[in-house]
Amino acid sequence: MDIIRVKDRDFKLFLPKETITARIAETAQRINEELAGKNPLFLAVLNGSFMFAADLMKQITIPCEISFIKLASYEGMQQGGKVREVFGLSERIDGRTVVIVEDIVDSGRTMLQLLDSLNTRNPAEIHIATFLFKPAALSCPLTLDYVAFEIPNDFVVGYGMDYDGFGRNLDQVYTVIP
Ligand code: IMP
Ligand code: MG
Fold first, then answer.
1. Rounded CA gap, 112 and 48, in Å?
2. Which residue's CA lies nearest to atom 19 of ligand 1?
3. Which-ligand-closest: CA of 132?
4. What is the pTM (predicted TM-score) of this model?
5. DSSP 3-state assignment of 119?
6. Do 151 and 117 form a contact (C-beta atoms < 8 A)?
7. Nearest C-alpha to atom 11 of ligand 1 is from which residue?
8. Which domains does the chain show, CATH number per domain?
9. Which residues are catalytic, by number?
10. Which of 3, 42, 87, 151 is the most buried (most CB within 10 A)?
11. Contact call for residues 42 and 101 (beta carbons, < 8 A)
């Protein structure tokens, strides 16, 4: 089924399962080569990254640890912007090689705030692994080490990503039909 309805919108198939599986294997392979011997700590950002994290981690063959964090957002005082705080990080990360595992980098603001927050805990280095990246939407300086797919600036759903809470369970990625 290539066209689906999620809540009140129609979406069409954008990244089929086979494409996702093949690309995640390549991404994991790069991580296995580049972070060998570093005992990385993967920090998967809930909720969106749960499927990507699960499939990626199954392909990681080097010694590593994984933990899950959540970002709680509330309205900030300045510029009406959202402030996001990191929840659930019980591990010490000082001196560690950290790999943030995210579903999607859009404007990049979420990732930048997460980096700022983690950097106060003195990790040795932080790498970013994101399933999707929308280069045209990026509005802050970010270096993304591992990007499974660069995609156009259109709203997507599935494979962990939601439309108003729905669609996270879809095992492929769908893009909104305007
Ligand atoms: P950013 O702070 O603008 O980079 O937004 C990142 C967050 O917005 C992601 O972690 C997602 O939760 C959400 N997001 C951005 N684009 C999409 C999309 O196309 N579909 C679903 N969620 C999205
Ligand atoms: Mg996310």
1. 17
2. 155
3. 1
4. 0.95
5. helix
6. no
7. 104
8. 17-151 (3.40.50.2020)
9. 106
10. 42
11. yes
Ligand nearest to the CA of 167: 1
Distance from residue 156's CA to the centre of ligand 2 (Å): 12
Residues with CB under 5 A from ligand 2 (ion): 48, 103
**Helix or strand run (H / E) with residue 70:** strand 65-75
Kindly state the tokens that stand for 32: 């296995």
Could you give the CA distance from residue 89 to residue 42 in angstroms, rounded to a whole number? 11
Helix (H, G, I), strand (E, B) or coil at 172: coil
List pocket residues of ligand 1, CB cut-off 6 Å.
48, 102-111, 155-157, 161
Amino acid at 23: R
On the question of pLDDT at 80 being above 70, the answer is no
Digit-coded pLDDT (tens) for 116-149: 999 999 999 999 999 999 999 999 999 999 999 9
Tokens of 158: 């599935």
Q: What angle do CA 166, 43, 149 make, to 5 degrees?
A: 60
The two most distant CA atoms of the chain are separated, in Å, by 48
DSSP assignment of 5-41 equals: EETTEEEEEEE-HHHHHHHHHHHHHHHHHHTTTS--E
Neighbours of 23 (CB within 10 A): 15
User: Are residues 177 and 3 in contact, defined by beta-carbon separation less than 8 angstroms?
Assistant: yes
